[in-house]
Amino acid sequence: MSGVSKIEIAESVEELKLLIKQQKTGLGYAKVQSLYLLKINAVETIKHLAVIIGRGESTIHGWLHIYKTGGLSLLLKEPLKTGRPKTLLAPINAQIVSKTPGRVRFRLDHSHRHQKVIEPITEALRSKLEIYRVRSNVASGSITVFHGRELLDFKDLREILSDLGIILSETIEKPLPLNSNHSEVSVAINQAALDLNRRVKQATQGSIDLRFLLPFGFGILALQQLKVRGLQLEFIPWYVLAWYAFDSFIKLNQTSGQSIDSKA
Fold it and tell me: Once rounded to an integer, what is the mean pLDDT over residues 13-34?
């Protein structure tokens, strides 16, 4: 995302210099300045450009997308505030999976995870000039929206999704409550694990979840050991089997007892 931008800038260096002086807002100045620096090859990467003008990389990518679409006139045009468009779909509940500046990922309910539902939403979002990339996954029902932070904030994005019939709700992973069953150390460890998992999900754009990856890894190791050494039941001490028998009996009967009590 921070590589060299491959874009043809039609305006000359002198024209861009003049346009920079004519800008009356900081936003307009930054937009033309970005084109000027790219035109004279003063920056090597978009990340470098973002540091120079003090804007986010995703914001600059959004500006360049608009410039490619309609040129300088569209880039500097103030967006018109129009009425709310007709809702595209019936109300759809969705949960926010991750939210960072310039990027929001949400997941639709199971009943709406179909191509005929997700595709119109994706196309409608792509039609917005402030949104320069939309990625969807029908199987998981997730949609990831990349937008320019200076062009669109989360409140505006929520309104756009609401116009499409999508109702967003926050989902926050909560640590274990501190009570008689959990010590301060266990709660701290649980919180650290949740923070690590959240960072991994953000770094991999939600494609990796440690809550699945770690058990899956242990399962693969177990199958490998089973293939190499067999069941090895003769090496399991009697008290281990006795403990699992006792522990499973207690847990299963606790669950059954609670359900019976709730019905009574």
Answer: 85
- Its domain, for residue 133, covers 92-170
Question: Across all residues in the chain, what is the average pLDDT?
Answer: 77
What does the alpha-carbon distance between residue 12 and residue 45 come to, in Å, rounded to a whole number? 21
User: What is the pTM (predicted TM-score) of this model?
Assistant: 0.39
Tell me if 26 is assigned to some domain: yes
- How much is the pLDDT for 254? 62
Question: Does 120 map to a domain?
Answer: yes
The number of beta carbons lying within 10 Å of the beta carbon of residue 98 is 16
Q: Does residue 8 fall inside a structural domain? A: no
Task: Count other Cβ atoms within 10 Å, centred on residue 54.
Answer: 8
Burial 164-185 (b: 16+ CB within 10 A, else e): bbbebeeeeeebeeeeeeeeee
Nearest CA-CA partner of 105 in 209, 208, 206, 210: 206
Average pLDDT over residues 94-123: 89
Total domains in the fold of the chain: 4
Residues 6+ apart with CB under 8 A from 219: none
